[in-house]
Amino acid sequence: MNNLTVAKFGGTSVADHAAMSRCADIICENQDIRVVAVSAQSGVTNILVRLTQSDVTADERQTLIDQIRDKEYAILNDLNQPESIKVALENLLAELTSLAENPELPTSLKLKDALLSFGEQMSSLMFAELLRQRGVHAVNFDIRQVMKTDDNFAQAEPQLALIKQQAETLLKPELSGSVVVTQGFIGSNAQGETTTLGRGGSDYSAALIAEALEASVLQIWTDVTGIFTTDPRLTKAARPIPEVTFDEAAEMATFGAKILHPATLIPAMRRDIRVFVGSSRAPKEGGTWVVNKAETKPPYRAIALRKDQILLTVKSPQMLHATGFLAKVFGILAEHKISVDLVTTSEISIALTLDNPTNTTTSVLSDTVLSALKSFCDVKVEENLSLVAVIGNHLESSHKYDKKPTENKLWKALDSVDVRMICQGASPHNLCFLTPTDSAPAVVESLHDVLFD
Ligand code: ASP
Ligand code: MG
């Protein structure tokens, strides 16, 4: 099948019957879409996560399960309550309830994954039925037969060779006569136990399915009309980008743009699958194509912002004209599995940035790491910094694109801010600054003004 397209619909796209109907329109208008991977309806996975927590009382548990039941029945009613779907839904709700009541749930990652899988199981059940009612020959396919993973519950690693093999034997034969509706996010290990690929993993699932089926297009349908030049919350001038290369999109994901699950592009890049990102609410408005080779390669494509950065500066006067200082510092960081983003050096010191997400309870820089470093150098830690990344092409020669080379507009936009660190040169696709978090949104806004308007 030459133009085989895998379409993924996110949680807001399948939130209710009306939203699902808009997705059905998209499928009915494009004969190439043969596989559809859905997320759980928006909000459902969050409710399921709450159910797995140890402080949920029996009353709250009942309320949460009722909330899920109400969401599902709202769709079922709009589908006119077909008996077989009602029975299947009741079976899923019964299984879900018994898992939610299992006293071992809060301490078992395996049981948690089993519970979290119900959101996707229910949405695919409903969506396949909705398509059938629209006259599409649709089957609801349990992706756990194909999406084989390791045992790392909650963050399972896909087993590519097995997935390919299972897709060939079980999924491919379904494609000739039907649209296959299936689940994102979930998989199973060698024992057949349910696993998940991590929160937001449905994009990644769809990309893996597209890779296994050798599809030519992967569509990611969400609630935004593609990838924007920057986060629209930072400036009203942000606008969708029609086309972006894999390299640029990967830089954007690394530096904080949250459109796709970060692993999504990896399978697409491996097999050169064109990826489209668009809004199922407004499919006619177009979206962004993420491709291997773009028609245009402008110097400035997007600006990303990543908050919660730590700047670590290590300094050792003994290292003047000595060797091995960098190796020693990085050795310690590697030993503690600390990933470094930006690096600058001077003769006797190194400054590097680390990501320190606020939603975790511990800092990336533990006392053990700090004392290991302090045993041979001075250490300074600065917080409340943000990383601003300008993403584009050939940024090393960006002055050519300015009308007055002596007045490079990019640097001009940074006139009035403290720039704590600058990195350019390792990749032609990015130029990064570290600035105080307070001024970062303003930096993005003024950069956007000069580079995109
Ligand atoms: N339903 C899962 C989540 O909310 C996976 C996804 O939507 O991508 O994380
Ligand atoms: Mg998502």
From TrEMBL:
PANTHER family: ASPARTATE KINASE (PTHR21499), ASPARTOKINASE (PTHR21499:SF59). It holds the Pfam family AA_kinase. GO terms for molecular function: aspartate kinase activity; ATP binding. InterPro entries: AceGlu_kinase-like_sf, ACT-like_dom_sf, ACT_Aspartokinase, ACT_dom, Asp/Glu/Uridylate_kinase, Asp_kin_monofn, Asp_kinase, AsparK_Bifunc_asparK/hSer_DH. GO terms for cellular component: cytosol. The keyword Heme does not apply. Belongs to the aspartokinase family. This is Aspartokinase. Its EC number is 2.7.2.4. One of its GO terms (biological process) is threonine biosynthetic process. Gene3D superfamilies: 3.30.70.260, Acetylglutamate kinase-like (3.40.1160.10), Aspartokinase, catalytic domain (1.20.120.1320). It comes from Saccharobesus litoralis. The keyword ATP-binding applies. Pathway: Amino-acid biosynthesis; L-threonine biosynthesis; L-threonine from L-aspartate: step 1/5; Amino-acid biosynthesis; L-lysine biosynthesis via DAP pathway; (S)-tetrahydrodipicolinate from L-aspartate: step 1/4; Amino-acid biosynthesis; L-methionine biosynthesis via de novo pathway; L-homoserine from L-aspartate: step 1/3. ATP binds at K8, F9, G10, G11, T222, D223, R233. Substrate binds at T45, E120. Residues 314-390 form the ACT domain. It catalyses: L-aspartate + ATP = 4-phospho-L-aspartate + ADP. It comes from the Bacteria. Keywords: Amino-acid biosynthesis, ATP-binding, Kinase, Nucleotide-binding, Transferase.
